[in-house]
Amino acid sequence: MRDESETVLPADSTPGVSRSLARFVERTGWSDVPAAVQHEAVRALVNYFAAALAGCASPVIERAATVFASFRASEAAGLIGRRERTDVLNAAALNAMSANVHDFDDTHLPTVIHPSAPVAAALFALAESTPMSGEQLLLALVLGVECTCRIGLAVSPGHYRRGWHISSTCGVFGAAAAAGKALRLDEGQLVWAFGQASAQAAGVLETLGTMAKSLGFGQAARGGVLSALLAAQDFSGPPEPLAGNYGFLRVSSDHVDPAAAHDTLGREWALLSTGYKPYPCGIVLHAAIDACLQLRRDAAGAAWTSAAIERIELTGHPLLRERADRPRPASSSEAQVSAQHALAVALARGSAGLADFTAESIADPELQALRERVVLIDDPAFAIEAAHVAVRLRDGRSVACRVQTPRGAPARPLSDAELEAKLRALAVYGASGIAVQPLLDALWGLPRAPDAAAIMRAACAPAAAASALR
Amino acid sequence: MRDESETVLPADSTPGVSRSLARFVERTGWSDVPAAVQHEAVRALVNYFAAALAGCASPVIERAATVFASFRASEAAGLIGRRERTDVLNAAALNAMSANVHDFDDTHLPTVIHPSAPVAAALFALAESTPMSGEQLLLALVLGVECTCRIGLAVSPGHYRRGWHISSTCGVFGAAAAAGKALRLDEGQLVWAFGQASAQAAGVLETLGTMAKSLGFGQAARGGVLSALLAAQDFSGPPEPLAGNYGFLRVSSDHVDPAAAHDTLGREWALLSTGYKPYPCGIVLHAAIDACLQLRRDAAGAAWTSAAIERIELTGHPLLRERADRPRPASSSEAQVSAQHALAVALARGSAGLADFTAESIADPELQALRERVVLIDDPAFAIEAAHVAVRLRDGRSVACRVQTPRGAPARPLSDAELEAKLRALAVYGASGIAVQPLLDALWGLPRAPDAAAIMRAACAPAAAASALR
Q: pTM for the full model?
């Protein structure tokens, strides 16, 4: 039985949340989107393709692609960084999985949602068979991300706290909205698309760290496209799939704030609260890595190496230790949430990329030794995202660095050049062999491109592009 | 924030629920299944095909089939009552939707789950390309239904009370178990299949009465097959997707009883607590309809017609009135939960089939007049499933009938002959044109059939069968 005080909504439900979002999606045009948000949409796509190029050949994608290959109805859509083509629904799923598999995609900080992967994957899957300009795709991306994050805000923090995998549960709504915009659904059909999404919103946190997590992500993108396609055929749904008595919001969260889903629509934009990770590990570690990389750069002038390190003190909010105190990580996933490993690799190598969190790196004797010298110190006065790193050297010297806001956070965004560098590095890591410069040119030029699908032709490995020309 | 008293499980989770179910699925053979359960599995399939033959041409299926046709990767599987063929995943989805669209499929009374549709649809979709005997299919059906209902018991009643569409959320696990058994997955792979199911378990009650409800059902069947196919490729999942801290049970219900998922496995069987509806309407109305049909049969001898009725008194548990007091239903869905309409049609026509709940029937002046003469009377002493109907005639006479247990409930099961009659009637309603006798012969002979897929050849409309022979 639930405590009555937990029930925020009156018994007769709050009407209009689904319709408010649907109306916003139908009526908003590109010129209604502020210039800063327009540019952020392009940046979100640079980050999306960077992450997908890193993940496109991972075992998760290989195995999923093997199964999905038996259910390939057409070659209407490309797969980022891969040669084969597949149908729209499968491409939406697999590309969303590629973009998230290394947890290197974007993060909407207020909800911890990774919003772009399901939305962008849904849109580019459609773009190769449903003609749309770059501007149209970017607008649909902005609106889809907005819906995902708005719905996430309405169920936060209770939804994630219960254990729902918020990026996939809310992502299917955003993917539905984006696909619906691209397919020019009207307001009523968009409400129905949300209804189809409510029948498919799934994913639990227990799957994190396993391949099943990626399936949830893929299904969010696939389900979003399917929702919009069904709604286009007047496949009906309830009038209030979100805020109804038994709608998604109340069913999946103990506290619901329906106003968060639609208040300030068109005035505040989720993309402006979304950051891009410079390092493929838990966000709570980013400030500490920033500090270590800064100390390492300084060390080059001061002539010391990691062998000279006697002790490393990491001071931060108690949550940092709770989430990341893992002195002996046993897997790549564990290394990505190990403060000891992150500090060791950043100090020893001056880098913190995907290659620094592999099984090989974990076994590196230099890093093993350094991890043992890390001491974590709690200080509740620290902001969660801040960190202070002090390194004591064997010769008696000490160096220290404090970082208040990590790189990549909305308050300290990666520059366009840094995002480009991320894409270049991840393309090398993923080894898909695609030419990076034409893809980057196409991405930065997208707002003026007559055909958004040109991006996919640049992002797929050669054989797929050839197949597209046939 | 949740009240601590609501948390049944200790913080470190209960291990072994997923593995217990997986082990049971892997190790149980046909000879381990009691004869009564073996026969019930056949009966469940007769009811499944009956329901699907009624629903196969409904607007829901027509519209879904139109969209799914663009994503048909093969013609490996037939669609019940239809001509076209499609691939295994689409067939699983569409056939499950057909079997549930009229709410005429089976009901596991302790959980109110409709268990057979997603499980049977998953199995028959596989059967045409993965050779299996009738016995193998029936065994997988029994095990799949068991898993669906066991998981449902573990989250009941909190899960449904929150608003989860329990047939689809739990159905994906049962479909995964059944498909996994058919594909001969081992215990570890079955746990992974449950993990993939946990990433896809979806559906909210707000969708009931709309086409989106059917999508949830279809996705449960499709997701179950996909889960098993992925697990067969060693696509990994968490070790405890059900009872883990952030596993399906705790995330989706405020009270969890993990023991219900595995205690008495192999000794108690969910199929023996599953009933088949003789009437396409809310189960709460079934006893009242039984009573009216009995009165109507008696009336033939006593020479009165519906025009002679002055007043109809229905006495039952207060829940009956709460759920079904709808004197002026506006749609077929509303008529199916209208006590007034159910009583009127049963008394006036002596029948209560799908044709009696259409828009045309709702508008029938004779029924309109009779509905106005119905009076609902609460009596908390009544069992929820019982009803008493008293009819006062204009000539001063009164007749009455009390029904304690409705037909179709496990305690008063439909006979095999009645199930056959249901299939014959629903096949006529659905108008697919298939020959019913060969299908019935194949169904009753399934335990001895070398090839389970023969059923589908009998259940599909002619063109599909021809295509299968090509």
A: 0.93
